[in-house]
Amino acid sequence: MKKLSCLIALLLSAAAAPAATISFSSSFGADDDVAIFAFSLAAPGTVTLRTFSYAGGVNGAGATISAGGFDPVVSLYDSAGLFIDLNDDGLGLPVDAVTGQAYDAELMIALAAGSYQVALTQFDNLPLGDLLDGFFFTGDPAFTAFFGCSNGMFCDDTGADRSSSYALDISGVDAPAGQIPEPSTLLLLGSALSTIALRRRRRLTHS
Question: Mind listing the pLDDT tens digit for each residue in 48-82?
């Protein structure tokens, strides 16, 4: 009887377990890097994607994240990689002390039960559509040099040097979230786009 009572208690506690917040922090090696994360929901719920690396703050794991990271964009996809929504600059988020800008991202969205994917990129490496369609600056590892900072990479549109660091919280998930490798198809697409861009530049140079 005791074993049955314990089993019932465990099942009830599992069913009543609150939605989790999973925190990630790492860094990019180039401007056009893409970090992809997966999560799932056992039941319909509201999920929040929130970055902390631009202006800093305390993430869901209780860690203090330093300000100074690049301007992040979060893009949400379903399990098949079909685009759902994105956010560049969340409303009402903290302002960075150096640039005076509130460029962290926050996307709060109601989702059905199921599996989802999140892509984190640097502004303005926006999605071209679905996940396998790639991103606008795929194949251009120093596209932010256009903004004119001294680093030549991870440049802010204000002209400020930023670091390669990012921090992301995924809140409201029922199953553990995890980072997954960038799909090989995206890497192949990046190579193809680079080749096309190079050919176009050569044509323009010779014309």
Answer: 999 999 999 999 999 999 999 999 999 999 999 99
For the chain, the domains span 19-206
Q: How far out from the chain centre does Cα 160 lie? A: 21
Top-confidence residue, 18 or 177: 177
Task: Please report the sign of the dihedral spanned by the C-alpha atoms of residue 146, residue 148, residue 152, residue 154.
Answer: negative
* 85-117 per-position pLDDT tens digit: 999 999 999 999 999 999 999 999 999 999 999
Whether omega before 161 lies within 30 degrees of 0, making that bond cis, reads no
* CATH 2.60.220.30 for domain 19-206: no
The pTM of the full predicted model, rounded to 2 decimals, is 0.79
Task: Give Cα separations from 21 to 138, 176, 207 (angstroms).
Answer: 30, 9, 55
